[in-house]
Amino acid sequence: MQTVIKRGRVLVGVRDTSPGFSFRDDKNELVGFEIDLARELARGLFNDPNKIEFVLLTGGADRAPAIVSGRVDAVISTMSVFLERAQVVGFSIPYSISKSVFIVRSDSPFRNNSDLDGKKITGRQGADLEKIVLTAIKNPVFQMYPSNSDAFLAMRQKRADAFFFEGGAALYLAREFGDAVREVSDGGKPIAPSYLSVATRQNDQVWINYINTALTDLKLSGKLTAIHEKWFGTTSLMPSWSRQPM
Fold first, then answer.
1. pLDDT-derived band at 17, boundaries 50, 70, 90
2. Residue 191 β-bridge partners
3. What is the pLDDT of residue 246?
4. Full-prediction pTM beyond 0.85?
5. Which of 74, 140, 176, 229 gives the lowest tally of CB atoms within 10 Å of its CB?
6. What per-residue string of b and e applies to 77-108 under the rule 16 or more CB within 10 Å gives b?
7. How far apart are CA 120 and CA 99, in angstroms?
8. CB 42 within 8 A of CB 48
């Protein structure tokens, strides 16, 4: 923490390929839920949300090395808390929930995940994604595409019954189409749920304490709720601790 304060800015590792969370807009500027969150952490330190330097990570595999090597002070990049990762880096309290969801057209008869058994599912190509689908429904027919935009279009054009993706990103994509699409209910059994947290170096307890306090302040001020609603149009991805009265 003293290093950050003496430097006068915080170095945060992010990616620019996560719709809704951290991506580039039409002006090629970094925007998204995690960008706003990082700026709020900087505001808490320096009373200025611009006292921040975003360090672009090359991909998911670059997140932990960026922390361990000291290239960044923190990583805010859809990083789920897993035991294997917790043995390498430290984590804050969660700021959001990651889960996978099915998106369908509003006129679709499918209301629950089980209604999609045997139906045509689209999404981005990848064996990992298909494996997750198989944990939720039976005998799906996969029609996968190189990009999420192509897959989302296939669903909208009725070439597939449902679009499948990580929840926050899927909800962000769906917002563009308003009432034309909707999320399918998970029936109280979320698909591949995990917590998203700020990653730091291990055993840097003073720094982790600050980040946890800053996240709590964002909950108390209502800003954590506001940025969830801004980017995802819902508070359904807020972790349970941030929903409790304090």
1. confident
2. 100
3. 61
4. yes
5. 176
6. bbbebeeebeeebbbbbbbbbbbbbbbbbeeb
7. 20
8. yes
